[in-house]
Amino acid sequence: MTLPLRKTRVPGGDELRPYLEEIDGNQWYSNYGPLVSRLEEKLEAQFGVPPGCVLTVSSATAGLQLCLRNPAYQNQEAGYCAIPGFAFPAVGCVAEASLSPPVICDVEEATWQLQPTSLPSELIPQLDAAMPVSCFGAPLNVSGWSAFAENSGVSVIFDAAWCFGSLIPAKQPSVVSLHASKVLGIGEGGFVLSTDTELIRELRERANFGLGKSRLVERSAGMNAKMSEFAAAVALAALDGWPEREAAAKKLASLYLSRFSDMRKIKILPGFDGSWASAAFAVRMPADCVTRVREALAARSIETRQWWSPQISMNPAFEGIRVADDTDMSHTLAAEVLNLPFHEYVTEEHVDIIADTVIGVVHG
Predict the structure, then answer these.
(1) Are residues 127 and 137 in the same domain?
(2) DSSP collapsed to 3 states, the chain
(3) Fewest CB within 10 angstroms: 38, 130, 260, 293, which?
(4) Angle at 104 between CA 269 and CA 316, to 5 degrees
(5) The last residue of a domain, from among 193, 221, 240
(6) In a domain, 174, yes or no
(7) pLDDT digits (tens, 9 = 90+) for 232-246
(8) What are the C-alpha distances in Å from 41 to residues 36, 135, 202, 252, 328?
(9) CA pair distance 227, 188, nearest whole angstrom
(10) Enclosing domain of residue 283
């Protein structure tokens, strides 16, 4: 039997039934219904922010599009949006569709992420926005990016897709995914969190075609990015079981950390310390070892993936995207980072087999 890379347990029928019965009783299925409202309130409580700081969306991609296409974020004519070279291709798709064309910048080796200090100084005056991306849930440099936004006038949107277990609230919007691959997976969905309640109010209008209270599109044309009541039902049921899911993720993290600490040639995802619930375990090793590790684990029916390989600029559809400088570190990480199985069905015995195999190939 194959051990998959990811295996999310979404709520089952018994867990969903009370919420589905409520939908039947309300006969309200979309357009910011009562379950969506309750979910937003629960998410605000989860992250310790005041009312009005969370907007649920149909997907994290839709949430990023809402933020990047917000006219309030367009500070300069024909300005660019900085995106990292090491990230999932969806980042490039979102930026390509925005009002600000993307420019690819390199990430820092110490964090595997785009940082304010890694932006070329000559590029900053040309930017409307920057979209730093969390690597597999590792905490984002919220304080550094917030200071950058205040000092430069460049809008910052956090792609916090993997960050349900590690989210740090800020004025700058963070977009979190509830996709099945994430630590709180519901199938499809997401939310935007910002302590700027006026921004959330504007995004709420734009997620419903731009319609305001007058039922007219007054400020700007929007899109349909609303979460349905059915998706909210799954999310509410998943939140009911979050404490157990969070504890299981932290326990698995401690197992992996105990086996992969103090390795010479194997580096763990920066920031992965077991203090937050993750949906992924990523390690970096010499590029010439990656294929051999994958083959050795596949022989044991264990799935792996180079989730963000190749780097974004190597995707044929993005060949025309501007690249600000060399993206050597993005290219290196795309070749050297490997994701190993991480979910509640991974046992201590699995971790031992995985660790022995990886360490045997790389250090053998």
Answers:
(1) yes
(2) CCECCCCCCCCCHHHHHHHHHHHHHHCCCCCCCHHHHHHHHHHHHHCCCCCCCEEEECCHHHHHHHHHCCHHHCCCCCCEEEEECCCCCHHHHHHHCCCCCEEEECCCCCCCCCCHHHCCCCCHHHEEEECCECCCCCCCCHHHHHHHHHHHCCEECEECCCCCCCCCCCCCCEEEECECCCCCCCECCEEEECCCHHHHHHHHHHCECCECCCCCECCCCCCECCCCHHHHHHHHHHHHCHHHHHHHHHHHHHHHHHHHCCCCCCEECCCCCCCCCCCCEEEECCHHHHHHHHHHHHCCCECCECCCCCCHHHCHHHCCCEECCCCHHHHHHHHHEEEECCCCCCCHHHHHHHHHHHHHHHHC
(3) 38
(4) 95
(5) 240
(6) yes
(7) 999 999 999 999 999
(8) 9, 27, 18, 29, 43
(9) 9
(10) 242-363
| Tokens (6 digits) for 48 | 């310790």
Q: Could you tell me the CATH number of the domain that includes residue 194?
A: 3.40.640.10
pLDDT for residue 113 is more than 60: yes
Query: How many whole angstroms separate alpha carbon 51 and alpha carbon 248?
Result: 29
What's the average model confidence in pLDDT over 29-45? 97
Give the model's pLDDT for residue 209. Answer: 85
**Residue 31 sits in the same domain as residue 171:** yes
**Do 334 and 219 share a domain, yes or no?**
no
The 10s digit of each residue's pLDDT in 179-188 is 999 999 999 9
- What are 55's two structure tokens? 């907007």
- At which residue do the structure tokens 């932006």 appear? 119
How many domains, the chain? 2
CB 189 within 8 A of CB 57: yes
> Do 226 and 304 have their domain in common?
no
**Tokens matching residue 75:** 């500070």
Residue 228 inside a domain? The answer is yes
CA 35 to CA 177: how far, in whole Å?
Answer: 18
Q: Look at residues 145, 150, 149 and name the one whose alpha carbon lies nearest to residue 132.
A: 145
- Residue 23 within a domain: yes
**Same domain, yes or no: 143 and 204:** yes
